[in-house]
Amino acid sequence: MTLNLKTSCVEHNVLKEYLEENASATLAEKINHGVFIEKDGKRLLNRKDLDGFMKYACEEARKLAAKGATSACIKDDVVFGWAIHYFEEDEIIGKLYNEDGSEYKPPKPEYKPIQRVPAPSIPVKPTPPKAQQFNLFDMMAQTEESKADKSADELDDGNAEPTELNVDMETGEILSYKTAEKNVPRTQGSSLYQKYIQIQNQYPQAVIAYRLGDFFEVFGDNAVKVSNRLELTLTGRDCGLEERVAMVGFPYYAADVYFKKISAFAQLVIVDGDSVSLYQIEEPPLKPQNEPSLPENFDDNDDFEEERALQKFFDKDALCPLYELFDYNLDMQ
User: Fold this and answer.
1) Which range marks the domain in which residue 208 is found?
2) What CATH number did the domain enclosing 254 receive?
3) Residue 43: which residues within 8 A CB-CB, separation 6 or more?
4) Which of 15, 65, 210, 295 shows the smallest number of beta carbons within 10 Å?
């Protein structure tokens, strides 16, 4: 059986050969002559070719491919089954032709321009100003404003420099207004950093531990020294300078541990609010030494009386009669 199919590659040849061997007479009639269908209110001839089948097969392969995969392995019998289904199913559209043999082109949808109707303009009536009754305070305020305007006009000669705000970098508080000058040097840092430097200048050889919230912080070269000695992480803080200032910190609840370690290699000054104090290790209080106990003195009247009674035996007046009794041969031992 010969099919009216044009081939342009090896795959087309394989598919055509399979269809010629396995297509039924009805299927061969559909492939060779096409099938009339109704579309867009017209009777059209639906004819299919191998190029159309290749696109159909690609879509079917994508359905079988794993999610996210870029390729799929399809067996030959599956592809051949797709070919039979593609040419046999009338609902699958190939190329459409008019009854006169010309290629059918679907009509382009007509887009009607949307006419925008401008909204009617409603005149806005200005609200008449309310009559305001001035009181004494309003008159005083106007007088002050006129004086201020007059003073500004007198001072403004067209060459005045603009003013800029002096803002605390830490709190965001506006401290004062100052006139901008040309070549004004960059600020010396935030108020916090200036206070830190002021205390550091008072104690040039000491490490200044400044409490900020729940942490004590050390800045500058001393921060590098403390970081190296105590193996703490060295970071930086924005103090209103061109570069961030080196900083190392530790929590206040463990401050005593770090204070003792820092005082082992440097003098330490602690700043907590308005309090500035030199850190000193408190020595434990001396315990009183146990004094040697003195021998107890016993005042026993009975023993004293007994001793006096014994001494009576050695009394001179008592011994004379004894000597006479023993013919003066009495030895005392």
Assistant:
1) 191-278
2) 3.40.1170.10
3) 36, 37, 99
4) 295
Residue type, 14: V
What is the rounded CA–CA span in Å between residue 73 and residue 123?
A: 73
In a domain, 19, yes or no: yes
84 alpha carbon, distance to own chain's centre? 62
Q: How confident is the model at residue 147 (pLDDT cuts 50, 70, 90)?
A: low
Residue 121 or residue 216, greater confidence: 216
Residue type, 70: T
| Structure-token match 């009975």, residue found | 302
CA-wise closest residue to 195 among 182, 212, 173, 215 = 212
Does residue 147 form part of some domain? no
Total Cβ atoms within 10 A of residue 84? 15
Answer yes or no: is 31 within a domain. yes
Q: What six digits make up the tokens of 94?
A: 């190939």
What's the residue count for the chain?
333
Average pLDDT over residues 124-146: 68
Two tokens, residue 306: 């007994």
pLDDT at position 164 is 53
Distance of CA 129 to the CA centre of its chain: 53
Interstrand relation of 206-212 and 267-272 (parallel, antiparallel or unpaired): parallel
pTM of this prediction? 0.33
- Cβ atoms 7, 53 nearer than 8 A: no
Q: Is residue 219 part of a domain?
A: yes
Structurally, the chain folds into a number of domains equal to 2
From 32, 67, 97, the end of a domain falls on: 97
